[in-house]
Backbone:
């Protein structure tokens, strides 16, 4: 709170007073009132005025300055109202009461939405679990009767399963709770699980797979990582090019992290699109060409990776291929610090 | 060899029946009760070798059943569930389940898991070799013999021949063969498969057997 700003606000009142005083003193001077009396009048007029202003300014400053400072220090500014002391002057008190009641209402509002979101999430989770039983049943039926039409159905079911899984993780990623479990696991077995899940797609699309040997362990939530990998591999399969399709999976080790690379020789991503592929709903040129793109897959990967404190990065050369890297922090310590 | 008996505890009728057919087709004896009130009495029967247990069940849930079974029996249990998170998996393991498979499973993977758990649990004197005609595949060391001659096989060749021998007399498509290899962590592609089959054929022929693996154009391979 600056004194100039404070005085500026009261400038009209001061100006009127000064004008009035001048008029009075000119009149007094004209009727030959001695100068010392006019000065005395000035003091009697303005001393109380300025004293009261000074007191008021001091009081306000003492109240508002810490408030402003606290507001800047808080990382959740809306919590400020919780720590405001009730002021001892009238306007302040009115404002304080209003703030308290709006704050309360806001909390109710926010809580209601939180509750709705949690309920919706729970519903989605239950729904996903329910839908898996009929999918499993359908797959078993297909397995039990060997004919070619059924094989096509199987692939479609795989797609449905993938989309269902996406819905589940979308619901999980948008909730504030940490419902993941970080533990040690072998990265390679996580990768092979995903590969096995997509075996049919690899085989029927005639994609060559080159999987490097690695024995590294990482610390993260295995299921989430599996989901991320699955999305990335589905993308690699989906955007593969006509001949000599090839997907290469390997790791590189650095001082502070372990990097998993998934490289394909697919259609690649246009330079102008690549920075936005992790944006929600972004489909770009490839998405438009391939129809079935929703712009959710990579967005979700990024969200989940962020939650798990994993890095995820994408590089691509148009018509030559795409390489996605997932960066796992090396030590337990870095994980715990975060 | 005695047939292994599997108990399926699953409330979705379609899944239960199809799974029963599927496992029966792969040579298991299957029991799939639909009386969930007395499911425990089925589970503790002596002649059950393995239990496939769903979690979401009427009357008692799978965790409860698992715990109850463990009180009296060490029969292998594979939990099959649509719940897919680490917590459920941990919980299952803590309750003494031997494995955890999430729905919808790939049947090849489910078979592999069942096989692995059974092997671990019963360490049965497994058939040491498979034979088709006079061709013999030794499972312990991955070699073949035919009329006194021996040949060593690579891992891929071994798996290919093993699968063809198990399915002897019926046509195995290249895709099916590849899926089988993938389910045991051998990620071969089309070309590699061709190369492996050619090599395998040459090895068998070098022992003097004629036309061991026939190619049915557009359909696959057959060992007869």
Residues:
């Amino acid at each position: 709170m600056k004194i100039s700003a404070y005085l500026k606000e009261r400038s009209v009142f001061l100006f009127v007073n000064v004008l009035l005083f001048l008029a009075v003193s000119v009149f007094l001077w004209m009727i030959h009132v001695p100068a010392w009396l006019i000065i005395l009048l000035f003091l009697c007029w303005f001393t109380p005025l300025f004293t009261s202003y000074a007191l008021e300014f001091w009081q306000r400053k003492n109240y508002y300055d810490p408030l402003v400072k606290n507001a800047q220090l808080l990382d959740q500014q809306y919590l400020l109202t919780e720590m405001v002391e009730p002021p001892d002057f009238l306007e302040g008190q009115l404002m304080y009461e209003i703030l308290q009641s709006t704050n309360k209402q806001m909390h109710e509002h926010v809580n209601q939405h939180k509750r709705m979101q949690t309920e919706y999430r729970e519903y989605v989770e239950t729904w996903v679990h329910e839908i898996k039983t009929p999918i499993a049943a359908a797959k078993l039926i297909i397995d039990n009767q060997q004919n070619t039409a059924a094989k096509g159905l199987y692939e479609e079911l795989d797609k449905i399963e993938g989309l269902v899984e996406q819905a589940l993780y979308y619901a999980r990623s948008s909730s504030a709770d940490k419902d993941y479990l970080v533990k040690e696991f072998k990265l390679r077995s996580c990768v092979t699980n995903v590969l096995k899940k997509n075996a049919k797609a690899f085989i029927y699309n005639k994609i060559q797979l080159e999987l490097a040997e690695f024995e590294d362990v990482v610390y993260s939530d295995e299921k989430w990582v599996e989901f991320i990998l699955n999305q990335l591999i589905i993308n690699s399969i989906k955007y593969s090019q006509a001949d000599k399709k090839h997907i290469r999976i390997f790791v590189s080790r650095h001082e502070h992290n372990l990097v998993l690379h998934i490289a394909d020789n697919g259609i690649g991503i246009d330079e102008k699109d690549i920075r936005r592929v992790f944006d929600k709903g972004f489909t770009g040129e490839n998405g438009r060409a391939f129809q079935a793109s929703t712009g959710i897959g990579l967005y979700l990967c990024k969200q989940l990776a962020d939650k798990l404190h994993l890095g995820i990065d994408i590089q691509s050369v148009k018509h030559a291929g795409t390489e996605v890297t997932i960066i796992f922090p090396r030590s337990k310590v870095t994980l715990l610090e975060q | 060899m005695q047939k292994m008996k599997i108990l399926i505890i699953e409330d979705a009728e379609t899944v239960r029946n199809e799974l029963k057919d599927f496992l029966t087709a792969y040579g298991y004896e299957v029991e799939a009760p639909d009386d969930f009130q007395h499911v425990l009495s089925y589970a503790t029967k002596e002649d059950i070798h393995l239990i496939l247990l769903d979690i979401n069940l009427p009357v008692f849930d799978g965790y409860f059943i698992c715990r109850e079974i463990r009180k009296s029996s060490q029969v292998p249990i594979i939990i099959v569930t649509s719940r897919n998170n680490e917590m459920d998996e941990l919980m299952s393991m803590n309750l003494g389940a031997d494995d955890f498979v999430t729905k919808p499973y790939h049947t090849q993977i489910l078979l592999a898991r069942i096989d692995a758990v059974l092997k671990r649990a019963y360490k049965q004197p497994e058939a040491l070799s498979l034979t088709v005609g006079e061709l013999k595949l030794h499972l312990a060391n991955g070699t073949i013999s035919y009329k006194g001659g021996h040949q060593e096989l690579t891992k891929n060749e071994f798996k290919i021949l093993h699968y063809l021998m198990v399915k002897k007399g019926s046509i195995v498509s290249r895709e099916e063969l590849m899926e089988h290899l993938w389910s045991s962590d051998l990620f071969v592609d089309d070309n590699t498969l061709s190369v492996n089959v050619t090599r395998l054929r040459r090895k068998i022929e070098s022992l003097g057997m004629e036309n061991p693996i026939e190619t049915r154009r557009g359909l696959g391979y057959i060992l007869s």
Q: What stands out?
A: The CA atoms of residues 169 and 224 of chain B lie 5 Å apart. The longest strand of chain B covers residues 5-9. The helical segments of chain B are 13-25, 39-43, 62-72, 86-94, 107-122, 155-166, 174-183, 190-206. Chain B has two domains: 5-122, 129-223.
